[in-house]
Amino acid sequence: MKTITIQVSRFDPAVDAEPHFEEYTVQVNEGARVLHALHAVRDNHDPGLAYRYCCGSGQCGSCAVRVDGTPVLACMEEARDGMTVEPLALPILKDLMVDLEPVIAKIARICPAPDAELPAKDEIETIKPLRDCIECFCCVSACPALQVTEFAGPTVLRQEMRLTLDPRDSGDRITDAITKGLFYCTTCRRCLEVCPKEIDIPGKAIEKLREIANRRGLTLPRHQEVARLVQETGRSVERTKETFLEQVPEVIEPDGPVRGEVGFFVGCMFNGRVPQTALDAMEVMKRNGIRVIVPHDQVCCGSPLIRTGQTAFVDDLKKKNIEAFARRGITTVMTICAGCGATLKNDYETPFVVKDVTEILTEYGIEPPTKLDITATYHDPCHLLRGQGISEEPRALLRDAVREFVEMPTQCCGAGGGVRSGVPEEAKALGAKRDEAVKATGADVVVTVCPFCEFHIADCTDVPVKNLVTVLLEGYRKKDAEREGSA
Amino acid sequence: MVLYNASTNKMHVDEIVDAHVLVVGSGGAGVRAAIEASRYGGVVMVSKTIAGKGGCTTMAEGGYNAVLRDRDSVDVHREDTLSGGAYLNEPALVDALVHEAPERMADLVRWGAVFDVTDDREIAQRPFGGQRFPRTCYAGDRTGHEMIMTLLDRLDATDTHLYQEVSVIDLVKDENGTVAGAIALDRDGNVVFFRADATVLATGGGTQVYDISTNSAAGTGDGFAMAYRAGAELIDMEMIQFHPTGAVYPYDARGRLVTEAVRGEGGILLNARRERFMERYDPERMELSTRDVVARAIATEVLEGRGTSRGGVYLDVTHLPAETIESRLPVMLEQFLAYGVDIRREPMEVAPTAHHIMGGLRITPECRTTLPGLFACGEVAGGVHGANRLGGNALAETQVFGKRAGEFAGKNPARSGRISEGAIEEKIRVLDDFFEGSVNPADLRKDLKLTMWDQAGIFRNAADLRTALGHIKRLADKRLCAASTANLLECCTARNMCTTASLIVRCALIRPENRGAHVRRDATVTAEPGKSPFGHTYVSLTREGIEQREAMT
Fold it and tell me: Are residues A327 and A293 in the same domain?
């Protein structure tokens, strides 16, 4: 047995205006789960504690709660000393019990055709990954789109795709899916992160439904414009100024001895809209002895098309990009755009390794910059954090580049999944939440590693937003200036 | 709505709901019954959890037995079921099971169930213990979950009125002695009276009366207890299936089911000396022997000192390809990973766990109980599985008998008898008493569960059983305390658990032989199962005993 102290959110609508935490010290067995700690509270402290549970083995989805803010199944998550236990972010009935009936009602039921037959094996195999859902509603609790829109929720869209894939179903699921907010999803993948069954709803449901919607001509007009632009120019951003590729040679040699060599995939945003940041990145590479090869025949990675279901000519883009780098014998391709990086890593099959700039810099080790005299916070780009599993590298680099680093809770900024262009009011509302979070940290600067996040957050807050490479370069410049001053 | 009457401080009925058929329970059998009954009139289904989340169907992993291939036959399925059940099964119920399981499977497929299929577009089947043909249909290792999701889709297309998180606490009879509905408590402890022409009890099992159990928190045996109090007869309540493979760690998750599919897919059992000990117990069928045999083998290994330090044995699948484990046993993989064990690389530790109650309400093939107006199906009914249930027969049972119960309850004529106010008041008076009590129901449950595990578990004898019965009676007499109206249900549940436990122990004392899952170390009668002079044990408010029968030849 061990003793742990936990904070449990309590709320009785008959008495309380809002939920509050109560602290309990309880005895639990080694390996006890959150659920067993709640049982201990009920059995020994307060029999009135309201919470749901049933199977105790992760199969029924009754007991989902938020532990330290993250939705989990209470029966599977190990109880920790000091943890907070709160209800899911849904209307609370009492204590940890939330009202699930409205969201359950949104999950579509199959309408089997009268002549429905057993599906074939390949059909069953494609449905199965979407069938594991136990309706625990962790995803609904965690989804940022739900905070600001009428989005019905990730698992609701999962079910629309499950039914679309079933030859027995006779419903019109695409129209349903659009009504339920198909275009509200930012593909931030937070739902996948919290799903106890690891169901890839963005990849296996949202993007696939958008693909079918696209084939039916139901893609949002703004997204169609982007697709047209990519088809005509190879780029998802219109040329309004001198691009990055127009400003650099094919090979950028480092200042000192060559310590390594990478190919550079610049991406549309850094090429056309914010080329200066890409140029800053090149300066950082030069300073650290890394030769950069920049194939000028590279094109859009296809991410804006894949995320919005417009995949008709994505294979052409993939082929062009893979050839551009493979032909030059490049073995490692660096991205500085989180979206491009995630796409090259997850949607491509490349004959070369793809790494984010923060991975490259961490692996080679960098010359320490002089710390800037600022407090900085870091915004995790969804496509870096969840798309590529990278969170520590940028933080470590940033800690060495600024006087003070402060954490900020992670949440999607609202720019991804075509939402900034397709549903601007949602993007704005999510951006406003980022602004609140930034302000709460008191930081002087928000640092990130994604041009979409950078551009969007800059639109939503008056705190300066910078790319990590720019901060590093500023540190080097400060170092140089100090050296010159002392010389 | 008033919680309770402020002037008298007494509970009263807050809401009356009328139905042609009342279905109590929302597992596989209950939902199937409601779907069927809805063809005949208004149906109300009362679920003590959110529908689809309670009960054991949702948790059932392994599969559903049905004869689907030309090389298999219903006669072989029938014989496997009878032989597995030590010939204590009711033959007419077994006939219904084996003949109708394929049709009920076809219903599920037609309604959208995503069962695994073969390359030839047939429902895939795998081998399960005690069966001579691989006839267990499955959806990975989440077969029951697949079924319940499909059934709820289908239920949604009917006019069934669903009451969720409302718990039935007692049956109500009219002046003619016909079951006329039930009294229930909602989430806040408000009293609801459901009035019906016919009532289907589909409340599932109750192995939560044991310290180590696979059952969900809802498996507290309420149906057995309510039916007994109403005067129904139950049979073979001593027949408790101890599933051979339950988890042993962590402590709070002990008993959690490790599906038979693990052995079906090729998992082997090893003792702490890494001996494949099933060779000594059933060299022919090895790990795929019947559950009673494997459970006793594991218990014996542990009792004789060849178990692991945590009191289990090893169940090993590390010789299987990782992809097989990932695709066929994803739930097992995920659950053990959560507890720090990667079953692709290291063996699981397992020990027996109370899993299923084979006994239950005595029913006819039309699912009629001994009480007029009351039907029963699923685990709360007895007789289908005899003295030991074959893996995969329970899910099939939910569908075959759920459909039958729904149909015959639906066809039941309108009830005419009057319901006296006294009958209702009597039920509610019990609730009032809970505000006067002093014993925490949680403490009582713990005590009861340990008593049952220690004295009415896998190996039994008369002295222990008598001690257990005495202790259960003392527990049942304790005055339970409800901290608020919302806690009334816990008191009712604890009371039901005591009743169910006492039924198990009483029947265990009555049966003097070793038969299937029932092992009396002090047994005086030994006979081949097929030649036993005994039939069902039976127990009701008015009588108890054991049927004698002509030895089968």
Answer: yes
Which of A315, A333, A363 lies at the terminal end of a domain, its last residue?
A363
How high is the pLDDT of residue A214?
Answer: 95
Residue B439's closest chain A neighbor by CA?
Answer: A43
Q: Does B318 touch chain A (CB under 8 A)?
A: no
Confidence of residue B1 (pLDDT cuts 50, 70, 90): very low
Q: Which domain holds residue A85?
A: 2-98
Examine residue A405 and state whether it is found in any structural domain, yes or no. Answer: yes
- Relative to beta strand A332-335, strand B360-361 is unpaired
**Does the distance separating the beta carbons of B119 and A55 come in below 8 Å?**
no
Distance CA B328, CA B480 (A): 45
pLDDT at B9: 53
- Domain of residue A85, CATH code: 3.10.20.30
Q: Which residues contact B385 (CB under 8 A, 6 or more apart)?
A: B81, B84, B85, B89, B239, B241, B356, B358, B393, B394, B397
- Catalytically annotated residue among B263, B362, B404, B415: B263
Is B243 known to be catalytic? yes
CA distance A439 to B537: 73
State pLDDT tens for residues B23-77. Answer: 999 999 999 999 999 999 999 999 999 999 998 999 998 899 999 999 999 999 9
Residue A87 within a domain: yes
Residue A224 lies in a domain: no
Chain B residue numbers touching A168 (CB-CB < 8 A): 110, 112
Q: What is the pLDDT, as a whole number, of residue B82? A: 97
Task: Mark whether A359 and A371 lie in a shared domain.
Answer: no
pLDDT at position B2: 30
Interface-testing mutation among A42, A49, A59, with chain B (most B C-beta atoms within 10 A): A59
Residue with tokens 């009668």: B525
User: Same domain for A25 and A66?
Assistant: yes
* DSSP string of A197-254, one letter each residue: T---HIIIIIHHHHHHHHHTT-S-HHHHHHHHHHHHHS-SS---S--HHHHS-SEE--
Euclidean distance between CA atoms B252 and A26, whole angstroms: 15
A50 neighbourhood in chain B, CB within 8 Å: 486
- B363-394 pLDDT, tens per residue? 999 999 999 999 999 999 999 999 999 999 99
- The SS3 assignment for A269 reads helix
- Asked if residue A56 and residue A27 are part of one domain, the reply reads yes
Say yes or no for a CB contact (<8 Å) between B253 and A93: no
Residue numbers in chain A where pLDDT is lower than 50: none
Alpha-helical segments (H) within A442-467: 451-460
CB-based burial label for B167 (10 Å; 0-12, 13-18, 19+): buried
| Contacting B residues, span 146-175, partner chain A, CB-CB under 8 Å | 146, 149-150, 152-153, 156-157, 164
Same domain for A52 and A73? yes
In the listed set A299, A328, A363, which residue is the last one of a domain according to the structure? Answer: A363
Question: Which residues of A are less than 8 Å from B353 in CB distance?
Answer: none
Closest by Cβ to A57, choosing from B53, B59, B484 = B59
The answer as to whether A284 is a domain residue is yes
B77, B243, B415, B460: the active-site residue: B243
Q: What is the CATH number of the domain that holds A281?
A: 3.40.50
Q: What is the CATH number of the domain that holds A169?
A: 1.10.1060.10
- Domains of chain B with CATH codes: 13-239+356-410 (3.50.50.60), 246-353 (3.90.700.10), 421-540 (1.20.58.100)
Same domain, A257 and A359: yes
Average pLDDT over chain B reads 94
Given a contact cutoff of 8 angstroms between Cβ atoms, the answer to whether B162 and B49 are in contact is no
Is B216's CB within 8 Å of A54's CB?
yes
ipTM attached to this prediction = 0.93
| Number of independent structural domains in chain A | 4
Quote the tokens at residue A420.
Answer: 């900034």
Other Cβ atoms less than 10 A from the Cβ of B5: the count is: 10
